Protein 1
Amino acid sequence: MSDEFYRIKRLPPYVIAEVNAMRHEARRAGRDIIDLGMGNPDHPPPQHVIDKLCEVAAKPGAHGYSQSKGIPGLRKAQANYYGRRFNVDLDPDREVVVTMGSKEGLSSMATAITAPGDVILAPSPSYPIHTFGFIIAGATIRSVPTRPDERYWRALENAMDYTVPRPTVLVVNYPSNPTAETVDLAFYERLVAWAKENRVWVLSDLAYSELYYDGKPTRSILEVPGAKDVAVEFTSMSKTYSMAGWRMGFAVGNPTLISALTRVKSYLDYGAFTPIQAAA
Ligand SMILES: Cc1ncc(COP(=O)(O)O)c(C=O)c1O
């Protein structure tokens, strides 16, 4: 009997769990620390969101299995958000799926679209799920820089020219965790053109969509005309509404990718607790 499990051998201890353990030790030793370990918002969610959760949770009919792809009203609300905020038109039935946080969305997407041995382009440094979601799915990672300068574009070209098999997916995350770097629409325009030319899917993690400064709202890759042909974007209520523990996020964009994610999720989960979806 082997205890050398294929996937576990490829997963080092989760970085945030390690940092939390260090924090715990430091606190126990009475040290005065500033916790930069986990992106836990330090404000409560808006009161009307909590009120809605309580109101719906009090209904006897709200406690059954929910809908894996998300209740229709929530998918419609997310489509409306993209319309309002980014001027992007989304079909709530074919182009939106609710996820249990963007982390779950990204990892289920990796499971849905990756075969063992596929090569995925992911930023380094990155938030762990951008690489490990695909490693769990059996893929190989080829790193590209996080900084969106000319070296980035050269790295993409090199990756396509010299990697066998050719990479199938590129992960991007701006504003970046951990570097906080941001991009403008011109970056996404170039990226969409590159992805179409190279026939690579783009997964954009926009978890920090609403954390911006200097009055310059964060851009979405889906603002680029035709981006939906190649891209899906993940957003989250964790940071925007201080709802990290609620586990509520979204994937939107290319209907083929959204359909693949929806299919995998229909086997894995029955959706978030309905009162959470209603409050979201
Ligand atoms: C870049 C990035 N993506 C995704 C996540 C996960 O967010 P969620 O709570 O939506 O799963 C985080 C959390 O810190 C993050 O920093």
Protein 2
Amino acid sequence: MLLTVTPNPALDKTYLVDRLIIGRVHRPLEIGEHAGGKGINVARAAVSLGLQSSATGFLAGHNGDLVRNRLEPARIEDGFVTVPGQTRLCIAIVDRDTGTQTEINEPGPTIDQAALDLFQERFSALLERSHTVALCGSLPPGVPDGFYAGLIGQAKSRGIRTVLDTSGEPLRHGLDAVPDFVKPNATEASDLLGREIETVGDAAEACRIFLERGVKTVAITLGRCGAVGADETGAWYAEAPEIQFASAVGSGDVFLAAFLVKWLQGADLSERLQFASAAGAANAMVYGAGVFETHTVQNLTSRISVTRL
Ligand SMILES: Nc1ncnc2c1ncn2[C@@H]1O[C@H](COP(=O)(O)OP(=O)(O)OP(=O)(O)O)[C@@H](O)[C@H]1O
Ligand SMILES: [Mg+2]
């Protein structure tokens, strides 16, 4: 089983409006409500691609219940612990005229020591049934920056593959525990390494630094410019296909899920990158994070060229 960890999940609410005008009243043309959070997106995408997946983290209050209710229909096993407070509500307003998205993201409930202890117990039990653990997204208030590093250490000591997709201090600390696979986007990698990542060459150089730090496999995603990946077999660039664009929110999460699916099938790095890039693009063709047509992924895969760097 793939275990995904989402410490700070969200009830994602999306409003589609004709045109967003500050100070005006808006009546949405469409309303969407989804279980959000990066690990949940990864699990949703992995299930769509045929991988049994569970999700854990912290859920709280009424919003937490609404998130929880959406897991079973998505065939995601619910491993969340219930904590006091209220799971955050994240509102995205999509402007149909300009295609822009304006977001209002709550911080999430404050996690206390009792909740952290409860989580530790649950995480340990879930690890028993997992081959891979993916640690995804930001940390809610109260969770220390070294949280992911601790979980990586526990999983590694049991021989479980560890995947890290976060940013800032949690990424910096997490890297110290040397996860097996990291997937920053260009901004996240650039912030971490303190160097610009604008070209494929920059990304390849950044990948090399991650490998030097002991990470076995790294992929840096570059949005509509594709992705660069590296492991001990070398570095590869997968382009992104031309698509009819809707929203790329969650494309990185879907990329990650698809990459893992191929990895577990024994595919080499270039094939994993090709399939993952197709899946990230398929996600960008529809509204909703971690939502895509599986036949689109297959069609796009054959159109993506992968080159050795
Ligand atoms: N506009 C696009 N056109 C085609 N492919 C895209 C587009 N945007 C993203 N992709 C594909 O999805 C992959 C991941 O996207 P991106 O780099 O935006 O991830 P991210 O910033 O981590 O996203 P998130 O964290 O919101 O999930 C890219 O490497 C690319 O293959
Ligand atoms: Mg991302």
